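Case study.
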Amino acid sequence: MNANEIIEIENKHTSGVYAKQTLAIVRGQGASLFDADGVEYLDCSSGHGVANLGHAHPKVAEAIYKQASTLITLFESFPNDKRAELMKKITSLVDGLDRVFLCNSGTESVEAALKFARISTGRKNIIAAMRAFHGRTYGSLSATFNKKYREGFEPLVPGFGHVAYNNIEALDKAVNEETAAVILEVVQGEGGVYPASAEYIQAARRICDERGALLIVDEIQTGFGRTGKMFAIQHFDVTPDMLTCAKSLAGGVPMGAVLIGHAIENLAPGMHGSTFGGNPLSCAAAVAALGVIEEENLPHQAEVKGVYLMGKLKRIESPNIREVRGLGLMIGIEMKQKAAPYIKALQEKKIIALNAGMTVIRLLPPLVISYEQIDHLVEALTEVLNGCVTDERMETGVVNGYGADKRIKADE
Ligand SMILES: *Cc1c(COP(=O)(O)O)cnc(C)c1O
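After joint prediction, the assembly is written out as follows.
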């Protein structure tokens, strides 16, 4: 199939919930993606933070092949060698979180954490943050803030409230004896790349402890080395009660997980579960992926490359930039105008970037991106950020599937 055929078929049969690009991608290697004509693109999106190891990592590919020809599926009631290996490995990553629930996506891990919080505490209420993104199924959508994702889908799940992010006082006022859990991203991703302050995360821990509420951190986007540590919470010396993860966990194969601390009680057989959860194929991919993260020291790579890239971005002199912020290789460039035209201009220069809300260009490159590729990215960005964008491009409202959201206000 050539590019036009691929695009035509998808446009004809798509559900309609994605803003389709005019680019058909058929192959990836490291930080590069290749279209149907063999043209190379530098991937600074990693599939929204999935491809931390780069695309088609040979160790993950080999593990998938081997496991696929051994055993693909097995319900979690039957123990399995690969699942046991993964459970041992993943629960060694954060001190104090030594149980795990395995599922298949980010939103599922959030759903599980929310259910566990209610059953464990016997309380109903969940406090989330303004600008938060936790997923699109009903529980996680109820924790998600932006109207764009929620409107038209009501009624949502009762018991959810939202408070200003990075605001200790607001959290202090909101959490009480009826709060089952506080759920927070350590760096808000979809909401515009806003890192939490250490004080905020530490205060969240203290406030939850004081009132008997649980602290859930959503590390679906920040996990597995992205911010310079295995998990972003590890920058702050805080242990959450539950940690949700997914995206990069299994090197690109669908998988989610909730890491569970000692405070979680009352989890009993039959209460929750997942047909595909903990299947040996995903487990084998995850074991391989976690091995690669360690062998290649990807958290360290993200840290030093993040400092390098951030330094260069901060030196770009453009009247169009409002702020550059982020942690590790999770970086947002907030523009004074819409981000979409800049992202489109980057794509014309064969660089794939993301938006985060209306005005933020978001960079989530694979952590294996080379310094040459980073330099190339900075060069292209410098040209694009200083160039004038045509009026026609300024009208482009939606990029890379998540869409630019008029309703996200910078300081909500
Ligand atoms: C992507 C994301 C989710 C949802 O994950 P899915 O696998 O798309 O369901 C939830 N929370 C955060 C912080 C995310 O970045």
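Observations recorded in class. Residues 48, 105-107, 110, 133-135, 185, 189, 218, 220-221, 246 surround pyridoxal-5'-phosphate (CB under 6 Å). The chain has a mean pLDDT of 94. We will return to this complex in the next lecture.
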